[in-house]
Amino acid sequence: MAMACSVGAGAARKPPRNGIGIGICSSRAARLQARAASPLPAEFGFVALTAASSAVLTQWQAVQVGIQRRKVGLKYPQMYEDAEKSVFNCYQRAHQNTLESYPAFLALLLVSGLGYPITASVFGMVWVIGRVVYSLGYYTGDPDNRFRGIWNAFGLLGLLVTSIVFGSSQVAAIFFPRVS
């Protein structure tokens, strides 16, 4: 069973409580040793936190749609209100539009985060914050107000570029290995 922490000189490990062999490192040296053994960049934690913030974003939007659904009395499975000018439809579209680009966002965030974790996190947070501004604009009931947050696209574009650069560098390393 693999352990998350090595037990070395002076490194005490508490027994795991989760049954899968992952213990809690009780010494700083053991934690650093475990961290050094990871194949991920040291700054990848920022990427993980950015991904978590994006999940919070989608859940916040879902809650907003649910609140509006109750307000207008729209029953499931109906997705949209039939009214011509519907605030509910604006809430629903803001959420749906985010979900339409969410798989690409997560894939690009994780791939670019392998090579450029800080840059990926910055571009990822541009997307997340931009989606919040986009949603708040849409929630006014005037669909044109969603353009206040359209700059979120720069976050996605940045992730696309850094993913291409990272992928290209990985492929180039196969065909043009460095000679020391």
What does this 3D model show about the protein?
The protein has helices spanning 28-36, 44-72, 87-115, 117-138, 152-175, and strands at 13-14, 24-25. The two termini are 37 Å apart. The chain has 180 residues and is mainly α. Helices cover 63% and strands 2% of the residues. It is elongated and about 70 Å long. The longest helix has 29 residues, at 44-72. Strands 1-2 form a two-stranded antiparallel ribbon. It has 5 helices and 2 strands.
Helix share bin: 55-70%
Give helix and strand order, one letter per element, not per position: EEHHHHH
Distance between the termini: 37 Å
What's the tally of helices?
Answer: 5
Cα Rg:
22 Å
Low-confidence stretches: 6-11
Report the average pLDDT across residues: 86
Q: For the largest sheet, list the strands in their spatial order.
A: 1-2
> What fraction of residues sit in β-strands?
under 5%
List how many beta strands DSSP finds.
2
Query: How would you characterize the largest beta sheet?
Result: 2 strands, antiparallel
General form: elongated
Estimated structural class: mainly alpha
Entry summary:
Helices cover 63% and strands 2% of the residues. It has helices spanning 28-36, 44-72, 87-115, 117-138, 152-175; strands at 13-14, 24-25.
What are the defining features of this structure?
180 residues; mainly alpha; two-stranded antiparallel ribbon; 5 helices; 2 strands
Write the layout of secondary structure elements.
Elements: E1 13-14, E2 24-25, H1 28-36, H2 44-72, H3 87-115, H4 117-138, H5 152-175
Antiparallel strand pairs: 1-2
Helix pairs in contact: 2-3, 2-4, 3-4, 3-5, 4-5
